[in-house]
Amino acid sequence: MLRDITLGQYYQTDSIMHKMDPRVKLGGTLLFIISLFFFKNFLGYIIAALFLGTAIKLSRVPFKFMVRGMKAIMVLLMITVLFNLFLTPGTPIFTVWKLTVTFEGARMAAGMAVRLSLLVIGSSLMTLTTTPNNLTDGMEKMLRPLRIFKVPVHEVAMMMSIALRFIPILLEETDKIMKAQIARGADFESGNIIRRAKALVPLLVPLFISAFRRANDLAMAMEARCYRGGEGRTKMKPLIYARRDYIAYICILMYLAVSIFVGRLSFS
Amino acid sequence: MSMIIDHVSYIYGEGTPLEHKALSDISLNIPDGQFVGIIGHTGSGKSTLMQHMNGLLKATKGHIYFNGEDIYDSDYDMKKLRSRVGLVFQYPEHQLFEIDVFSDVCFGPRNLGLERKEVELRAYDALRKVGLDDELYYQSPFELSGGQKRRAAIAGVLAMKPEILILDEPTAGLDPKGRDEILGQIKRLQVQTGMTILLVSHSMEDVAEYVDRIIVMNQGRIMLDDTPREVFRYYKELEEVGLAAPQVTYIMHALREEGLNVDADVTTIEEAAAELVRVLKG
Lengths: 268, 282
Hints:
The complex is a heterodimer. By secondary structure, chain A is mainly alpha-helical. Chain A folds into two domains: 2-130 and 240-263, no CATH class; 145-224, no CATH class. Chain A is built from ten helices and two strands, in the order H-H-H-H-E-E-H-H-H-H-H-H. Chain A has helices at 16-19, 22-36, 42-59, 63-87, 103-129, 132-142, 153-183, 193-199, 201-224, 243-263; strands spanning 92-96, 99-102. A two-stranded antiparallel sheet of chain A has the order 1-2. In chain A, helix 3 (42-59) packs antiparallel against helix 10 (243-263). Chain A is flat and about 65 Å long. The N and C termini of chain A lie far apart (57 Å). Chain B is α/β, with parallel strands linked by helices. Chain B has helices at residues 46-53, 78-84, 101-111, 116-129, 146-158, 176-193, 204-208, 228-232, 235-240, 247-257, 269-281; strands at residues 3-12, 20-30, 35-40, 61-66, 69-70, 85-88, 164-168, 196-201, 213-218, 221-226. Chain B contains eleven helices and ten strands. Chain B starts with a strand and ends with a helix. Chain B has a six-stranded mixed β-sheet with strand order 6-7-8-3-9-10, sandwiched between helices. Classes of the chains: A mainly alpha, B alpha/beta. Chains A and B meet through helix 7 and helix 9 of A and helix 2 and helix 3 of B.
């Protein structure tokens, strides 16, 4: 039952996007998102869509996986579009009951919808082509300068990768405990809200105990291997920029320059 | 009063790239009061099969009949089935959650909607059957030793008074003494109550001594299904699939090859000793 949930939606395949350094992908995604907020006309969005389309093509991830991320923000998207459509003052196009659709509103709503969709698809592309571990590695390296301000970058990155690693384990554990309690006649599916909340006790108590036990074991295992934080620690697969990464950086910067220049042209 | 498994197949994650056939065309008849050992390597489908028997997993194909009724009928009461087919999972102590052992054992029967008195009677009865000391009844289950926890957890299922008791690797992670105690207790239970018991294990040694019948599973299929004596005759085939017959089988076969006329089909150390005495004296 819980087995069907997938988190950290990495899509395994072999492509240039998968091989790319996670720092490039992180930085690229960030710049891409920022660029979306500079555009004043639709040409900018078209360039952004073309850029994203090329990246998706290069990643060899089927497009339906990109759209999957859209489902999660569908409600947000609808609300944004509706509010912009009806509540923007300007030249009226038509009126339904007390709500007036204006020319500016329609423009704004369309822009908002396109912007949000590009934003979500752009960030899904990153998570689909980068393993969670790679992602935290990249983040750790990118945020390293923050150590000057005493930010424990390595520790935070380590916690993140451990948390990510534990998600599937704990899901499996939940599934197992749930089955064991159902076999003892527990009922998780019927009754009102209070009864259901109470029914979760036999699930949550063993789950927490198991999580603590696992955390304890892991800490022990790490100490036994002399783990003592990030100081002087080397990596088995250190992140090193390759030629393709520099090319990717140049592409991103070129995209940024072109799209912002074109996107801010005004035709009036 | 029996369980019939009729051409059951089960596929994990059907329609996804991770599709995996866990059971293929399993047919079994488990009559009342039998003590059955189900043996198989990790991933042979034995745990999957068990979860079918009390309806936790639904077969992709095939039917299961309990006491003559198809459990996949739309109006079949699954909750009732689960109270009559008790399932003890691997490491059952991980499901303990109550403040004391006694309340934890009460959880099962209470879910059946029995009245308090009956619930408590059953809990006491179950705790006595697994041989847990009564001074432990009101201790936190988390303060018990590994073996004690496991007994408490088994009592939690026994308290539902199942007609069939299925145990998944009940001895995993226990020391030899704890293992013998638990298995001995289960055997006693079976003799006293005439309950049908299915014991899942990957160790022949564990089950040989106790069970009436062994079902060997391999890659989702039934490879052998017979009395221990008959099954161990195939010790070479068993080895090919990564299982082993009890050590005594090997010794007896080796003795036979050396020209000692012993009956190589004995299954336990006691039988082997008696057989050796018989041959050497006579």
